[in-house]
Amino acid sequence: MRVPSGALRALVVLAALAALPPSAGADCTWLLFEDTQFYRADDPVAALYVDDALARMSAAAPLAVVVHPGDVADNGAQVDRYARWSAELGRLDGVIPYVVVQGNHDGQTGPHPNFLAQFGVATGRYDAHLVDSFDDANYGIRFACDGVQFLMVGLQWRPADFPGILPWADGLIASTQLPTVVVTHDYGHNPLGYFTAGQAVFDQLVRSNDWIIAVLSGHQYELTRVVQNDLGNDVLEMMANYQWCDPNGLGPFCVGESNAGANCAVDADCPGSTCNTTPGYGQGFTRPIQVHIDPLAQQIDFSWTTPSVLQATRPELTYVCTPAMACYGYCPRGTFNTAGATALGVSSRLRACNDGVDNDGDGWIDFDPAGGDPGCASRSASTESPECQDGLDNDLDGRIDFDGGLSAGVATPTAPDLQCGSPTVDRERAPRRCGLGFEFVLLIPLLLWAERRLGRRSGGRAAALRP
Ligand SMILES: [Ca+2]
Ligand SMILES: [Ca+2]
Ligand SMILES: [Ca+2]
Ligand SMILES: [Ca+2]
Known about the structure:
Layout lengths: L5 H14 L8 E6 L11 H11 L7 E6 L10 H11 L8 E3 L12 H7 L10 E6 L2 E8 L2 E7 L10 H12 L3 E4 L12 H11 L5 E6 L5 E6 L5 E6 L26 H4 L15 E10 L4 E6 L3 E2 L30 E6 L92 H28 L2
Parallel strand pairs: 1-2, 2-3, 6-7, 7-8, 8-10
Antiparallel strand pairs: 1-11, 4-5, 5-6, 9-10, 11-12, 11-13, 12-14
Helix pairs in contact: 3-4
The protein binds calcium ion (4 copies).
């Protein structure tokens, strides 16, 4: 076929674009909690976090998943704090999927039994969305955003130190074949590196597993960046943690730990700083991440705003930090409290059978055992319309598809094509049996000519390189 001229080619492109389905419409929100270790069991902020999550259910970008990246309590012995958070998060059961992972304060040598008693897999609290678990503290759940299915894998603190966890996660992600978000407490380091435990997660899991699109964590302070995996595809890395305050002008957002004696060690560690000794204080932030999936551009757009200040209606919680807090080196100054946006190219990781779009316009969307597009072999299949479910008589034998073209909307269905044992087969024609095809024989003179020409050119290059 003749290649069309520039203007004609532009028209062809425009016509093709017009024929494509529109970009998926609604956005969704992922809600990232910060480390909550500084809240007392009677701190009302615990309830405000969950109130905030529930309030987002009816927003324009409905909540798809809630993430607690660890350090639920300040140490494993604080059974009252675990019980409190368990009760509050329990309000999300059956409403919204969520993941809670162990932070270093939830057990220094492994998940503390008190943490597991409330947030272990064995509690059954993740069952409604559970895909698989390695043990009580490492598990995967499924959630949906704008019609696209995702896997979220929660990993305990320092998972690389415990045999089997990261290989299990790698296998789960590879077999589930969904765009995946990994949650682990300790991961990135501002601005470009990783903590030791995070480096191990990146090296042993993230960089080589192309299904992973994002890693969410706490522990470190505000940081958002996009890195590339070994295949050159984007991975979003987002940390959010406001457990300490910024000493440089954000005092009103910042409330010191009230629990003097337990959490005001900052006084001894950081001479000159002060602690708020009024009971019941704790800072309260959630980080809403707005997500827009664009299957045509093969990208996911993320935007995030300043952390929501849960106690904005409670001015009595205002606490002025002192500059001495900065000696901890924790207060992130310029990167704290920022808003931003980034577009994440997802290339092969957003497939036609898991993009929330009816790509072939037959009225069926994506792989879904309960009634998706019959052409989709799995969520990872890259076409909704293989030859055996495309409504065409591809081999011109008078028979169309696995069902005569019925499911593809053919007005006058034929008998089924005999080669189509299943709608997901991508070939109506019987496979060839003999070796060298007729078309290949025609190409032989061209290949011989190309070989001679390449031989001459490489010889010329070699000569030019000689001194
Ligand atoms: Ca689709
Ligand atoms: Ca379809
Ligand atoms: Ca066909
Ligand atoms: Ca046919």
